[in-house]
């Protein structure tokens, strides 16, 4: 329960727009800036000490990818934003990691927010991380909350690949989005496997813990849906928009990411429906079990209650009870008891209880 | 239960349109009018005794912000409305605090209704307050139901800030809207925290009070949704509309408020779904507990019922019961009883009840 | 249950379009026609004996308001319709009081259907009544099912007001629509109050009658929604439509009615959700109560069942039961019983049942 | 359960488009073709033996109405289709009676599918029948599955009416659609009456049969919705479409049918919601009843269990039980028992169980 | 449970777009390529050993249908794709069998994804298979996962039919789509039959296995909906799109497939609602049965508990119990017992329990 559904942003209330305050998990690490700039022939990969040095890439001759790990350092993001001429609202949103996925057009760049999602197999929890992308003519700025290896594949392809080196910032931004969305499938596989295992458990041996698990996964689905649902609209905007920053050729690739996103949402919806069905099944199986218990109690009690009564009658101490002296009375009463029990058993059998 | 879901407006039924009647909570305080007018160089902050004096600001050379606290004084709102040339229907809506959030275009001004929302941590209740904004070329009129400090940040920025002093009434109106919507996040944080605490309580020690709390928060969610849902459409209209009252530059800021509003609605929807899931969980845990209780009763009753019957049989007073005289009969019956009990325990173990 | 959800219109099946048959509640009263015609200077209020006399108002120099109370008189409606040149389908719909709210454009008039809604505080039932409006250049025809006082305010304003006397038939039609929709708020207030009282009752002392009441109000909500939901679209059409019958100035007033209608629907939706939540709460409180009952039974039965067994054992009549002769046996058995009871009480306490 | 939710069309799988196979209920009757052709002065009503003779009406001088009863005769439909020059897909759809309601434009005719619905009061079941209409310039072809009297009203009006004889095929097609949709109201009346009777029964004396009935009607509603829902869109298309086959004047009449269709769907939705509410009510009343039963059992058992235990104690046969010899012991024990019972009754009263 | 809801595509995460990796069930069979090329006069049907030979058909004079069975052979699909000049993303999607149905336009071809659905009557499971179609000017490429006979009808019509031989690749693609969608009806028939049988079983003799079956079919419905729902939009795009690859005449045929798809979705929705209703019915019938069981227990226990108590009282061993000596005491007590039992029976009868 450490991960909150609603993030704290108390300090921000009432502040001027563009007030730069970090909203998100606190961390002690130092923010890292790494710049890869390349054209078809050359590629340079460097670590940037001074964020102000980013100005060099704002309209450089090559494609520059400026990657920041750690948006908790307000001054770093501020220096980058001022160096690259970003709108104060954009800087504010980069720092506030509680954004919905979205695409916003500014005069000479696009601002894209997307959620990176990691599955924590110990807690069975999804850990979301906000990624902000600035797609400009000459550079792509990507801001992550924490260090991570999800962009390693892109970095590798920049070094060794061909297509990506011949195309512009739009294709680079696509490659980053694709890396994040591809990762959603890995997440869904793990979730799907856990949920199907839970279903198996539910059918063979349901326990109260199964119920808690179902509730837990329904909760994770809420978070997942909140993180992915707005992305669909955002990606659709990218494939449609009339911005000159994205070439027609790249739009085909973005359509593929959009397609993946819709697929993820379909699967998510299916898993949600499956969990809802599992809850129904759990409740029914509780009712079934209660029925079983009640049946056993009712059969036992109903058979013995009249027998015990008969025994009680002949345990009374009245002086004038002529039956008590009859020699065949005892076996006769035992037979009577047997008859009552048999009659009740037949009655239960007719009701299909046994 | 003091706060009603449906406000009384009985007196208004059948009245002519534009009939000025206050609909809302009654109060004894005196309405306050405060006017801040400013340009890049000067700023004047004054209290207005006579509402008719507002005429001076209708087309003054500076930007004027006329703030009214207390719309229960019909004559004050009427004087202001007539001084500023407002449509009778607008005056009517300002007085009627039971409006949906909305934006309406009139010839030379926009009329905006929005709900200010405060969380009462004692009653765990949301206290809504209606704010009406008139955005005209030379002034912004804001009408609140009660005194409050939500606009203090804007007032402070007017005194000390730069950007807000260089821009027009559109930016001022934005700043007021932003202050209100930012406050929603504070509200959601408090609600979210309470609801997650409730979830914790539900899992560890559910009581009937937990159920009442879940119902209470579902109810608050209904009120919240009613207050925020129409705002989305209203703000979308502001960022889209072809009115010349809003500059393109300000639209970017309004898009940010719109974005916040959508975020609030997303979170609200998530909290609603969470509460629905919690209700399901509560019902299931009741069923589980009932199962436990029934199992204990069934086991106890089922084991002792036949034993008590056997004891009853040998408590009968028939004269001819040969077993009674056998020397080993008593321990034999005790062993029989032990056997029956053991058999039933094995049966329950096979059923996995114990 | 006197008011049917589906009205009988059996006679109409298979009839030609425009066949004039009354569908609705039968009544013995005589239909009343009342005509108010006015301009800025004069106003005449008369009762019309002969419906054919309406021809005079079809293109008279003044604005005429022809109000009919009692559409069960087919010949009256027919005479009016022919006198004013109405389409046969319009006459048919006026007589058939089982219409959805709607707006239909004809060549030189608009046909508007709306539901007047009255709350019957004895039966807690909504009584709907259909009102048909014909908005033409020179007259407004309004047809009600029964006599009533909902238009008295409009009549009063015609006599004494100014604005309404300076404007045309479009403003008159607006005033009639407004009078009806304003009345919805009175209805919602009464319903809301009853439902909140029911909620209070549900929380403090739920009975099966509470459940029947919840069901009853859910049913009324269905009827209400059916009567108001289509009105939204109809009013939106009025504020939008390109008909020359409605002046731009009047559209602002119609937008206000539309706004009220949306507000009514919002409140309705909230009340519906509240009722759904109340049903959930009722079901949960039944389950809670069952738990309480079962707990008491289980505790009592479980404590006494083994004690009664022990007493039964020493009530057996075997000759060879050495314990029976021991002097301390009786108090020892009493102590044993006490110990068993105490053990079980500790067990229940550990389970948090007591 | 004779009427299947999914119709068999196995033979058709894999066949070429336009393959003519009848899908629907088999019947032994012979298909009947009846042609009415008319203008303002003349009307001829004849039975057509040879379907090929229909060619004469394809572009005859009068309006011709070709009505077929029995689409199970593939060769008849094929001959008609070829005679009138229909597209193979249209012929295929006429024969396949498992179509959704729809309107399709072809070069010189419109193809309309609609469901005729009959209520079987014995089985409380809806019997759907598919009607196909071809609206061409000079003829209307209507194909029914079985003989029936739903079009008798139209036939009568053709003989005696005026309007219908002066207008073209579009008005004739409208008259046929109107006859079918008018019939839906009769159906809804019968359904609504049965459902309200069921509601009455549910409130006064619910039985498991009530539940089965609710389920049955929910099922009928599914079928009804499937048959009527797509008709709305189809009729909207007819009132909107730019085809020259429908005159502006007729569109007003088609708008009326559309209006009826929307009304039917509204009522259907209301009945569905009512049935859902009835199911909730049924489940709640079961729970209430269970509570009653448990209360009686708990009260009886809880009162007598300790009393029986006390009796058991003094039924033990220990030699040293001094109380047994006390003269007032018996009445004292009886008083003790009375006290225990009274105490428990007070406890139950405090819990509001009795 | 062998068929997973979420397919594994782990290897693909982080790979470059267009990386060719098979996602789907592994198989040992060899991929088969079969080419049918034809014009009105000639038809040739051959097996292609070398996939590179497909280049000959890219712009051949005849219509060519290239059918591949087995997309697990990456190199085969790659060779085909390169030979026909397909976009890398298309090749990637052909290999990744976990796609949503869709239509994508490329410069000179359309890419269509559709699901072939087979019902496994042993497992009562739906087995989906992905089919990719490339519709180009001179060829249609169809890629299936496994060998199968669903296209046999098309092959037969190519050999013997007339229409299909006179028309282009668009009509061929239509024929393939039609064959697949027609098959959905067969599937629905089988599912519908099973579900109606289950409903019958539910009403006559519900068991926990019935519940498991309902859950199973709800799950299959989720899968089915996921496979068919997006197809509607895809087919709508085909009938609408402005591509020159599809002739107006063929669009009429595609509209027919679209119509079938909508029909399938309607039926699916109906079956889903039916299953939801069946679950409600199951839960209610469990509650009803519990009520029955409780009633029997309560009646038996409530009648005998006071009788046994009375017997217990007169089984006490007090010395001073004067009744014990009365001669009529024993029959009087028996009568008392009878009276108590009769009273309770009357009470139960009044409550309508018996
Ligand atoms: Mg922002
Ligand atoms: Mg969000
Ligand atoms: Mg969302
Ligand atoms: Mg995909
Ligand atoms: Mg979907
Ligand atoms: Mg489900
Ligand atoms: Mg208003
Ligand atoms: Mg509102
Ligand atoms: Mg709302
Ligand atoms: Mg935001
Ligand atoms: Mg959501
Ligand atoms: Mg939920
Ligand atoms: Mg009508
Ligand atoms: Mg209606
Ligand atoms: Mg409705
Ligand atoms: Mg309003
Ligand atoms: Mg709602
Ligand atoms: Mg609710
Ligand atoms: Mg068809
Ligand atoms: Mg269909
Ligand atoms: Mg349907
Ligand atoms: Mg109607
Ligand atoms: Mg309902
Ligand atoms: Mg409900
Ligand atoms: Mg792809
Ligand atoms: Mg996909
Ligand atoms: Mg889906
Ligand atoms: Mg079809
Ligand atoms: Mg549907
Ligand atoms: Mg549904
Ligand atoms: Mg249902």
UniProtKB/TrEMBL annotation, chains A, B, C, D, E:
Compartments in which it is found: Cell membrane; Membrane
Keyword Nucleotide-binding: no
KW Transport (keyword) present: yes
Residues spanning the membrane: 296-316, 328-348
CDD domains in the record: TmCorA-like_1
InterPro entries cross-referenced by the UniProt entry: CorA_cytoplasmic_dom, CorA_TM1_TM2, Mg/Co-transport_prot_CorA, MgTranspt_CorA/ZnTranspt_ZntB
Tree of life domain: Bacteria
Keywords: Cell membrane, Ion transport, Magnesium, Membrane, Transmembrane, Transmembrane helix, Transport
Topology class, membrane: Multi-pass membrane protein
Predominant cellular place of this UniProt entry's protein: membrane
A matching Pfam family: CorA
Family of this protein: Belongs to the CorA metal ion transporter (MIT) (TC 1.A.35) family.
Role this protein plays: Mediates influx of magnesium ions.
Protein's recorded name: Magnesium transport protein CorA
Species name: Geoalkalibacter halelectricus
Lineage: Bacteria, Pseudomonadati, Thermodesulfobacteriota, Desulfuromonadia, Desulfuromonadales
Gene it is expressed from: corA
